[in-house]
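Record 1 of the preview.
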Amino acid sequence: MGLRSYIIKRAIYSVILVFFVITLNFIIFELMPGSPIEFFLGKAATGAFKDPERIRQIEEEWGLNQPLHVQYLKYIKNMLTFNFGKSARPPEKPIAQLIMEYLPNTLVLMGTSTVLSIIIGVILGVIAAHKRGGKVDSAAVTTALIFYALPTFWLGLMFLVLFARTLHWFPIGGIVDLQVKQNNPPIPINLFFTTIYIPSWAEIQNRLWHLFLPCLTLTLFQYGSFLLLTRASMLECLTEDYIVTARAKGLKERTILFKHALKNASLPIITSAAISFGFMISGAIITETVFSWEGMGTLIWERGIQGYDYPLLHVVFYVIALCVIAANFIADLLYGVIDPRIKYG
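->
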């Protein structure tokens, strides 16, 4: 089987998986206790306060008076066409608009911390494997395990107490100071037939200042898994014959470690990195809450979970699943690029 056939096969599997995710998402919310009417009206939906006219309006507005199979087919159509509808909690904004308001902040935080954790974890993992059994190896593994075991909320609070409250090096929370944003309006740039606005340099600096502590918290929490995975994969490769041959040829140790050993040990790392990037848009609920970072984690917790905004949770879970499926699909294609020994078939 060639590369083209492999891609088609993986694409078909991914489409089937998308339909499975949509079905599972629909079933989970249908099986949740309570009725949607109680969700919308609360106590007014039962007892002496029951209003048949209001209940009928809600059923017509949200399609609750239709048979279950009709609701399911419409649900599939809306999910596949990205017609996500509106939020069930005031202000009743379109769900796509709500996501786009919070998603950029999450991509900045989660994207930066994920990339840094992968880079730091892989480099330290290679060094630890090279120095296996020594003090450097023990120190790297112990430190990684400690940070991986610490709760993120505790680590974040300690950083806030030390760097924000005591030393006053960083802000206590938030994304940007309101005064800085008001005094430095975005810069308009004419691009083809539209105009885009980019933040001023002062606002970018202020955002980076606010970003440092939450990004540091997530990076320290995440890098340990990549360090341990890289170290384990490298230890298997460093005893192979081609590594002995490379050393016999007189190649530099750095070239042997990063060009030969790491390349052949990178497949598990690619898989782990793909999963991390796939779940990136889900945000970090605990860290975003601690640092008052208005990202997807905050949206899911405050509006979706605490506010019982089930239509929003429907969409968020579906989008997260799509990103994970896409990330794994890309990782499968990268295997053959990174390791030519892999044959598609």
